[in-house]
Structures are given as structure tokens and as C-alpha cells.
Amino acid sequence: MTSEQQRVVVIGGGLAGLRLAERLGGSPAVRVAVLGEEPHAPYNRVLLAEVLAGRYAPEVAALPEPGPVLRRGVRAVRIDRADRTVHCDDGSTEPYDTLVLATGSNAVLPPLRGLFAPGGALAASAPGRELPDGVHAFRTMEDCLALSAAVAAGPAVRAVVIGGGLLGVSAARALAERGAQVVLAQQGERLMERQLDEGAAALLHAHLAGLGIEIHTECRVRGLTTTAAAVPAGSEAGTGPAGRRRVTGVELADGYRLDADVVVLACGVRPRAGLARAAGLEVRTGIVVDDLLRTSDPAIHAIGDCAEHAGRVYGLAGAALEQADALAAVLAGTGPGPRLPRAGGPEPASAPARYTGTRALTRLTLSAGGDGPLDVAAFGETDPLPGDDVLRLSDATRRTYRKVVVRGDRLVGGVLLGELSSVAALARSWEDEEALTDLFHLITDDGGS
């Protein structure tokens, strides 16, 4: 490394961190180091449900090989802002001129009775913090492979998925495709309530039921039942005072009990901001960043699921990629702050490159079932405000549902299930904030052709 090179250290080897490294990697004026905690090759988290369903091998979900810039299996444990150094769990250190936090998010573990052994909540690293055998989050490739092994262990595995959001629906569908007997428990009134309205959620409910999934909405889970797990010959008797435990069932608040061999915790995610908080950076829901994706320390930026911009944490792949691209532009010199000269290019422009937010579209394909696949798309504000206009087209025979919300002459949101031929045109109109002229044509099959 020459004295002129800028040292950019990225904590997080996921989609956002590797996209940034790729964008900056063409400049000889920058040395990028990416610290990735997971030992696996980098992968696209969006495809985990397809891996669990058995349609994709794990390697299909792999991201392009980043080369030597990525250090796998290395966890950052402390940021020394005064010395501009990252300390890692293997004793190594990484000095930086610019630090980027792309630490992602963690699965939310609900406060269920029986989830942890007594006293286990006192320390995250204590043996009591280990989940019972058969209980899994659904966030990482390790989670996905463990679930795959569990459902492959024998016929008619009984699986309970706790949480009926996007993550829970994806997990339930994938497990059903693998032959598991699946129960989906959702505390809210409808499935995917953050994205879908009542009509769309009813169609989704019917589709999942057609796959053999038993669905309980307005259903609060109180706890788990466990038993002592069998200990292989030659192993120690247990991992702590209470020994190892295996899940046997799920207790609902009304006293009903669901037998379970496998339990999936799909209760949402939380920005992973502990490292930033310990370093004294401003953290609310996520790590607070400005339009240049700077934290409260100008030498440190944050992108992806851990970042909170203008009061919002996106938690979506599209937003993570847009933030990585915007930050690459900032660091390349198109905005104020740290600048990295471009290799063989013109001098950086003086106009600032700013991240102004992401207009994200959620899309999901639910495959299999006797009626074939069901495509789902949602964007913008799907619940109308007083004075908004709402247009719906529904065809129960074709299992299609389309709803758009219009404010004045602007499209502000929509939900589509089934045939999505018009979604691209609708999304363009929404993203570009175009004045609408013939909305009915836009949401019909003709409008999308």
C-alpha cells in the first residue's frame, strides 16, 4: 500500500459490503478490506427460501467471489475511533481512513417461555443462551442448512413457523414443499400485514392453505415445551447446568398446544448496531446516517440493514444496493467528505452525490401447489389516507387481485397478486411520480403488455 492510498475497511461481508467493495475495487488509490463474520462463501440472503425449498443448491445463492479483499470468519469486536482501528476476535487489527459499517441485522428472538434455559438471558455467550435443538431462526445460510437437515431427517416432520410476515410466509412455503407438516402462527390479523391489505392477504391465505399449511392468525404464542435431548455416546452429558434440550411443542396463549419437531422463529429482524453503539455512535432503531451515509463520526459510514436514514430502516436488498452505490460515489469524490481519486478518469465532479432514500418494491413468488405459483408484489403506501382514491380489480377464478392508491394525480402505492404483467409499468409510474392519465388501462393486462 502506498502512502497515497486510502484505507477503507468494511465490516460486513454481505450484499451491501461486497457491492461497495466491488464499486471501489477498480481504483489503485484505495485499499479495501472486508471483514466477514460468516465462514461461508458470500451469498444472496434473498435466495435462502429457494435453497430451503430444495430448488437451488447453496452454491447457486453465492455472490461473485470478491477475492482477497474479504477475510472470512473474522468478527470485529471493537472500534477505536481515536486510533481509527478495528480490533478483531482473532487478535488482528485493521487501521482505516474510512470505516463502513455493513453489519446487517439479527433475527428477533421473541420472549417465549422455555426458549432459553433458566438464567440463560444473563449473558449472550452463556450456554443457556443456546436455542433448544429443533428451534431455528431463518436469517443465515447456517440457519437454512440446519433447517434443511431437520426436514430431511424423516417423513412428516412437524414444523411450526412463528411469524406470518414476509420471512415467515417464505419459510412456511419452503418447508411445505419439502414435505413437512407446517403450522403458521401469526399474531396479527392477517398475513404479511406490512405489505398486504385484507383482500390480498385473504388470497395469500387461501394459496398457502392449498399447499397444506395450517394457518392461525390473531394467535399469540406463549412458550415452547422441551425435553432433555439424547446425548450421543462419548459426548458430555450436556452443555450447561440444564443440559441440552429438544423442542417438543409450542404453547399458545389460549392453552392449546401444537406438537413440533421443528420450530422456526420468523418474528422479524433488528438492525445489528451493537458495535456502533459501543463506539459511541448515534443509534436509534439503526445506526443514524445523513444523506452522505455518514454516521455521527464523519470518518464512519453505515449502509444496508443496519443503517437508519431519515428515520427509516429499510431491511431490503434493493435499498442496500442503492446505498452501497451512493456511498461509492461519495467516496470516489462526487460529494463532500472523504474522496478517493478515480483510476484513469477525470477529476471528481464538485456536485455532491446524496442518498435521498429508496422507493422499494417487495416481490415474492410462492411456487408449487395444485393451482400453480402465486406472485405477490407490493410497493409504496398500500393503506389509503382520507381523500385518496382506491381502484381494485379482483378475479377469484384467476386468483388475481390488483389495488392501487392514488393521491391527487399521483400513484402512491399498490398491491398485486397473481398475474403481474402490469407491475413494471405501475412501478415506473410510482418511482418517477408521473402524473396519471389512464389508470384503469395501467392496471389491466393491456396496460402491462
Distance between the termini: 53 Å
Number of helices: 10
Tell me the fraction of residues in β-strands, as a range.
Answer: 25-35%
- The secondary-structure class comes to alpha/beta
Strand segment tally:
25
Biggest sheet features: 5 strands, parallel
CATH fold category name of the largest domain:
FAD/NAD(P)-binding domain
Helix content: 10-25%
- Whole-number count of domains: 3
Q: Which stretches are low in confidence, meaning pLDDT under 50 for 5 or more residues running?
A: 120-128, 235-242, 334-351
The first-level CATH class of the largest domain is given as: Alpha Beta
Rg calc: 24 Å
Shape: globular
Write structural notes for this entry.
This protein has 449 residues and is of the alpha/beta class. The chain folds into 3 domains: 6-105 and 269-334, FAD/NAD(P)-binding domain; 120-265, FAD/NAD(P)-binding domain; 361-448, FAD/NAD-linked reductase, C-terminal dimerisation domain (Enolase-like, domain 1, 2-Layer Sandwich). It contains 10 helices and 25 strands. A 5-stranded parallel sheet has the order 3-2-1-7-19, with helices on one face. A hairpin with a 4-residue loop joins strand 14 (245-252) and strand 15 (257-259). Helix 1 runs parallel beside helix 7. The longest helix has 18 residues, at 317-334. The protein is globular, with a radius of gyration of 24 Å.
